[in-house]
Design goal:
With 520 residues, the chain is α/β, with parallel strands linked by helices. It has 15 helices and 23 strands. Helix 3 runs parallel beside helix 5 (236-246) and helix 7 (297-313) packs parallel to helix 9.
């Protein structure tokens, strides 16, 4: 996100950009790895912030802030005094002096102004009080969050998944072939979600190698008309995008990449242009389900082409993938593929599978950002990357499956390589389920994205409210999770699975959400 333009009314500046001409002073603390964010945007600095031990005072460089907020700056070498001016504010700060002059009046400082590598450093508490900034210090993340008066509005992502597979969320099976009813259902769903505080929808436009839009590559989804390949009398995707944007909400197109069927058993059940018909050699049967084989490069490219058809032709805000890569259970018979398409000579088939998915994710990200840099690309993996028992860097969990070992989703690599813009781990457990505690997993994922350009959103499970699983007997479980997330600057928003479960108001959740999100 680019730093938004700030008007003069927004802020009295804390800025300073000076060269101290040989001035230097010793300091008590070794510079720590502390990050600064201004209104959600990371600010780079050649002199990092640091903490003065015992006093527990954070020192920040004014020069960095000045470049983003545009204050007037002057430096008087003879007295080693910096003067910062903006609007009706005049600040004077002198090296080694434990007070500053604010419009001529003396204001004590928590610690003296210091010079580090030719840059002025001042105590954060002084900055927050005098410069009209909202400042938050996240100890665990070693991160300073600065917000100007104009940046205090809550623009965090608040989203709902809209499942079209099996007509779970939209459209209803009673609306087959009735475009007006489908439109009415979508509008009503949007209005209800927005009234709860949602600002983004993630709509499944490819449930199973099909589409909710006119495509040259895949057939129409059967969940529109009841029959795969049958064309409706409108473009559902175009309609949904328009209605969503009309409400000032974002629309992310959700693709299930490799699933090829949802109950169809034979060729007769598929449309003539379905991949199971046109490329049966790409299909692997695992139990009752068919999958497009991720090990075949041409098959992966086909899926990328399908997704790019939407990116190129529709005004979407994002491309979203779920966790259907390799199936997490059953036998996946891909030995012949492993032998035929292992140009890197990867010895372990599990590593080869992960490499197949890695190539797919990287190439898809490149394609999206080359075509439309503004379109965000994100993935929602299973909530546990790896258990601690399997990997010393894994989470303190005892999940029976994991993204890395079961779906062959090497999410850590995607994050570290910046192949994706955001990640949404499906943390569908409560704060009290010991084998996979919500709080431990949020902490783990926050640590994974820390210091990267990848945003973290958390996937929540309102569908579990009222079920016998531990921790889901009260609606406050969801609110407690949302509150817990505020401990981590890395958490930039929340998604709920799914729309129908929010709309049914489980255990009275809706008014609690409206209160938490301060819906007017």
């Amino acid at each position: 996100m680019k730093l938004l333009h700030r008007t003069w009314v927004i802020l009295l500046s804390i800025a300073l950009c000076v060269t101290l001409l040989g001035t230097s002073i010793s300091y008590a603390a070794k510079p720590a790895s502390i990050s600064i964010y201004l209104d959600g945007n990371k600010i780079d600095s050649d002199v990092p912030p640091y903490i003065i031990p015992k006093a527990n005072i954070t020192m920040v460089p004014l020069s960095v802030i000045s470049k983003n907020l545009g204050a007037g700056v002057s430096w008087k070498q003879s007295t080693k005094t910096a003067t910062i001016t903006k609007t009706e504010l005049v600040l004077n700060m002198t090296i080694g002096q434990k007070f500053a002059l604010v419009n001529g009046e003396r204001v004590d400082l928590d610690a003296t102004v210091q010079a580090i590598n030719g840059r002025v450093m001042v105590p954060l508490r002084f900055v927050s009080k005098q410069m009209k900034l909202n400042v938050t210090w996240y100890q665990s993340a070693q991160t300073i969050k600065l917000q100007t008066l104009g940046g205090l509005s809550d623009n965090a992502l608040k989203g709902a998944w809209v499942s079209t597979v099996y007509n779970l969320d939209w459209p209803s099976d009673k609306s087959y072939g009735n475009s007006e009813q489908q439109k009415q259902e979508y509008v009503q769903m949007l209005d209800e979600l927005q009234a709860m505080g949602m600002n983004t929808v993630f709509v499944q436009v490819r449930p199973a190698a099909d589409s909710f839009y006119p495509s040259k590559l895949v057939p129409w989804s059967k969940y529109l008309t009841g029959k795969q390949g049958q064309q409706p009398d409108y473009d559902p995707l175009a309609f949904m995008i328009e209605e969503t944007h009309r409400r000032g909400m974002e629309f992310h197109a959700w693709f299930n990449p490799f699933r090829a069927n949802t109950g169809e058993k034979g060729i007769a059940d598929f449309a003539p242009n379905h991949v199971a018909v046109t490329h049966p050699e790409w299909i692997v049967q695992s139990g009752s389900k068919m999958y497009i084989n991720p090990g075949i490069p041409a098959a992966r490219q086909h899926i990328i082409d399908v997704i790019m058809e939407v990116v190129d032709n529709y005004e979407i805000d994002g491309v979203h993938l779920d966790d259907y890569f390799y199936p997490s259970d059953g036998v996946f018979a891909d030995d012949p593929t492993y032998l035929a398409y292992n140009e890197k000579n990867i010895l372990d088939k599990a590593d080869w599978r992960r490499d197949n998915i890695n190539q797919f994710v990287e190439q898809l990200g490149v394609a999206i950002h080359s075509a439309k840099p503004q379109v965000r690309f994100g993935i929602s993996p299973f909530g546990v990357w790896r258990n601690l028992s399997k990997d010393f860097s894994g989470s303190d969990t005892k999940a029976s499956v994991s993204a890395y070992d079961s779906m062959y989703a090497d999410v850590r690599t995607w994050i570290k390589q910046d192949w994706i813009d955001y990640v949404v781990p499906q943390i569908y457990w409560s704060m009290t389920l010991e084998i996979a505690r919500y709080d431990k997993l949020v902490d783990w994922w926050a640590n994974e994205v820390r210091g990267t350009n990848v945003d973290l959103y958390i996937g929540h499970a309102p569908y579990k409210l009222g079920t016998p699983e531990i921790g889901w007997s009260k609606p406050e479980e969801i609110i407690d999770q949302l509150k817990f997330n505020t401990n981590y600057f890395e958490v930039k928003g929340d998604l709920f699975f799914s729309a129908k479960d929010l709309r049914r108001n489980p255990l009275g959740l809706i008014p609690l959400l409206q209160s938490y999100y301060q819906v007017k």
